[in-house]
Amino acid sequence: MITCVVDYVISPAKLDAFEAFAKAWMTLVAEHGGVHHGYFLPSEGASDRALALFSFESLAAYERYRKGFGVDPAFIAADRLRDESGCVLRYDRSFMRPLLPALARGTNAERP
Q1: Where would I find the NIPSNAP domain in this sequence (predicted)?
Q2: What is d(CA 99, CA 102) in angstroms, rounded to the nearest whole number?
């Protein structure tokens, strides 16, 4: 399993637009074989930072999902929400291997 962690710098004045953007992407990840763990929005502290975490069974599965970028109308519409609103100022994407509670308890001894 591979988890994509996206660290966003967002416009605090455009949080509603960011939430609409986030909801669209949560649906798209699920429709294309991933598991979205949610967006984590500002509450206390920094008001311009948000995170998203979503997983795919493998890097190959993630790459299949990425093939829709710039091509699939639903992907284009979701990006349009971000671009036209200006809610995202910058983002960085990194990949991690999760250690989930079920794995820590030993219910799944296999490591990806």
Answers
A1: 7-99
A2: 8
